[in-house]
Amino acid sequence: MRPCPCREPHPLRRVVLTGGPGAGKTAVLELLRQAMCEHVVVLPESAGIVFGGGFPRRTDDASRRAAQRAIFFVQRELEAAAEGANPAILLCDRGTVDGAAYWPGPDTLWSSVGVSRLTELARYDVVVHLRTPTSAQGYHTDAHRIETAEEAARVDERIALEWDGHPRVLVVDATTDFVTKVRLALDLVRDELPPCCRTHPVHVPGARREAGSTRERTHEEVGT
Ligand SMILES: [Zn+2]
Ligand SMILES: [Zn+2]
Questions:
Q1: What distance in angstroms lies between residue 184's CA and the mean position of ligand 1's atoms?
Q2: N or C: which end of the chain has fewer CB atoms below 10 A?
Q3: pTM of the model
Q4: CATH code, 13-222
Q5: So where are the chain's domains?
Q6: What is the 3-state secondary structure (H, E, C) of 62-100?
Q7: What is the pLDDT of residues 97-115, one digit of tens each?
Q8: Rounded to the nearest whole angstrom, what is the distance from the C-alpha of residue 66 to the centroid of ligand 2?
């Protein structure tokens, strides 16, 4: 986060970075956080707050529904809390819509929390979906990433379905190298910035900006 002299009131834009497990979301967000001015506020992942704070991570349906409701409300209030800092962009580590990908049924997350899916899709201006790699593409489990490659792929597919219908989704294929992922996200975030905050130099190692390199397509794969 770089200090920014601009004190103009900013119209608020919400950008979501999403993806199944292992897609590189956290690392991309960390680089963006360092590169952009202070008016790009990177939110923590609400699931990390909920589970990291001790919410039980059980596999029965009642527990899963309770956890997704908790994550939904934490996400919504994280976004509300960040609005006080005159941000130009809220960069969300997943959005409220992602929880639906983890919802076990038989009802929907939306009916359970009393909102409509369309309202939640409309919260966000742009969505970047980093696809989860297969095992052959380098997916691996660790202490925090407990899903198998197959489970991760299923979640990733459901995430794509839940965001389906949003007018601006940039899908980044798992085979895309990390530097390209960062550059695509960086260009996209910068395009959403108001002119007053757009002029800062951006220093990301190896992620030099190329004019016109943002390729935004609706539900199409972006390859390397
Ligand atoms: Zn500004
Ligand atoms: Zn700024």
A1: 21
A2: C
A3: 0.85
A4: 3.40.50.300
A5: 13-222
A6: HHHHHHHHHHHHHHHHHHHHHHHHCCCEEEEECCHHHHH
A7: 999 999 999 999 999 999 9
A8: 38
